[in-house]
From TrEMBL:
Record keywords: Hydrolase
Originating organism: Kouleothrix aurantiaca
Binding site for substrate: 56
Molecular function terms from GO: protein serine/threonine phosphatase activity
SMART domains: PGAM
GO biological process terms, semicolon-separated: positive regulation of mitochondrial fission
Entry-linked CDD domains: HP_PGM_like
Superkingdom in the source lineage: Bacteria
InterPro entries recorded: His_Pase_superF_clade-1, His_PPase_superfam, Mito_Ser/Thr_phosphatase
UniProt keyword Hydrolase, yes or no: yes
Name by which UniProt lists this protein: Phosphoglycerate mutase
Length: 190
């Protein structure tokens, strides 16, 4: 049966002390995490490689793409970090988040899912998406049919690998979630 295989990688650790923390670049640990996931994916053929337009994701993608034969990276704003929704039980974590930011995050996360989690066309596809933890967690919830509010109950490490297959009949199977087996313990960061 035909399938679209989505390899989702969270960006490496980034500088949160940067004056524009949302745009912070990778730390040395983040660059090493990216090198480790690049080694894990080395030599794999991807039909497409996408990344968020935020600096930490672009830097992670550049390191990974150097190990992938013929990888052409396509930047996608829809893969930027967002808050997909506010789970009612955890609303106290989001008191400083503006309502329009929540509305934008909800529509963005759904648009990203609908764009990338389509059934395969006439051939198998393997796609790499380098993006952000909240978005990956929302993708997992949607793909598995879980309430979107469950995203906050999932954990993602920097440069963790999640693989989800979308089959021609619509079945979605998660092969791995937040796999960090390629990272030594000293590189495990959230």
């Amino acid at each position: 049966m035909l399938r679209r295989s989505l390899f989702l990688v969270r960006h490496g650790q980034y500088d949160t002390e940067d004056s524009t923390a949302r745009e912070g670049g990778l730390t040395e640990i983040g660059r090493e995490q990216a090198r480790q996931i690049a080694q894990r994916l080395r030599g794999m053929q991807f039909d497409a490689t996408y990344c968020s337009t935020l600096r930490r994701a672009e830097e992670t993608t550049a390191i990974i793409a150097a190990e992938l034969p013929g990888a052409e990276v396509q930047r996608a704003r829809v893969l930027c970090e967002c808050v997909p929704c506010i789970p009612p039980a955890f609303a106290h974590y989001f008191t400083k988040t503006r309502p329009e930011e929540i509305e934008h995050g909800a529509s963005q996360s759904l648009a990203a899912y609908e764009r990338f989690f389509k059934r395969p066309g006439r051939a198998n596809r393997r796609e790499l998406l380098v993006c952000h933890g909240n978005l990956i967690r929302s993708f997992v919830c949607r793909a598995l049919g879980l309430p979107i509010e469950s995203w906050l109950n999932l954990n993602t490490h920097n440069c963790g690998l999640t693989i989800i297959h979308v089959f021609g009949d619509g079945l979605r199977i998660m092969e791995s979630f937040n796999d960090i087996g390629h990272l030594p313990a000293e590189l495990h960061t959230r």
